[in-house]
Amino acid sequence: MTINNNSPSGVRGMIFAAGLGTRLKPFTDHHPKALAMVNGKTLLQRNIEYLQGFGIQDIIVNVHHFADQIIEVIQKNNGWGSHISISDETDSVLETGGGLQKAKWFLKNDFVVMNVDILTDFNLGEMIQQHLQHKPLATLAVSNRNSSRFFLFNNHQQLCGWENIKTGEQKIIRKEDPLIQKAFSGIHVINESIFSLVRQEGKFSMVDVYLSLCAQQAIEYFDHSGAKFVDVGKPENILVAENLFH
């Protein structure tokens, strides 16, 4: 389904908005997390406007949980000036990897993907430029912050593994020393060649995709430490976001 198909040229974007938002209950018992409000604007509007700030106006949004509410708000606001397509996952939520795969018809060349429940002000334009210069398969936005889960990179900024420091689970794909912990921020710049490399099907995570490919493919990071960043997936973080984003 396309809500507005007057697509300008240039980098396209995808916003993951299909999740159940269980951490945001009770709001998400009746609404999608994409429509949670921060200072009078929904998370969806804020992230569409964030992408607009870097010239990205051709965007696909995946929907599942209360999909009709998201579609209605986009239509009512004419996409806030952007050209919005919908990837409909109402039959089954496909997680980040499956959701990306379903939307591959829309995503061309190098494109930006982000989670709807994060807010940031880092310079996405710089991240895109780094990606276009280095030409990795994907560039992942990361920062030095407290987290239970980390991607692990080598000294050349290349992905080597993943770990959960709460459970002790580790997946080391490239045994290098040192391995540097970076917290992933839910924003990626990806080259469309990834679609020919993905072997997973159905419902799967982009984390698993990256770990399955990083031994043969360059997957790098862009560090935005110092910029504003909030994961608004938890109710207490809405107050944090309202103090940072006006």
Would you write up a description of this structure?
The chain is of the alpha/beta class. The protein has a single domain (13-244), classed as Spore Coat Polysaccharide Biosynthesis Protein SpsA, Chain A, CATH 3.90.550. It has 6 helices and 14 strands. It has helices at 43-52, 67-76, 95-102, 124-134, 206-213, 235-244, and strands at 13-16, 37-38, 41-42, 58-63, 83-88, 110-115, 118-120, 138-143, 149-153, 159-164, 170-172, 180-191, 219-223, 229-231. Helix 3 (95-102) crosses helix 5 (206-213). It is globular.
Give the gist of this structure.
With 246 residues, the protein is an alpha/beta fold.
CATH architecture: Alpha-Beta Complex
Q: Give the rounded overall mean pLDDT.
A: 94
| CATH overall fold name | Spore Coat Polysaccharide Biosynthesis Protein SpsA, Chain A
What sort of overall outline do the alpha carbons produce when their principal axes are compared? globular
| CATH fourth-tier homologous superfamily | Spore Coat Polysaccharide Biosynthesis Protein SpsA, Chain A
Number of domains: 1
Structural class: alpha/beta
Helical element count?
Answer: 6
Strand content: 25-35%
* Low-pLDDT stretches: 1-9
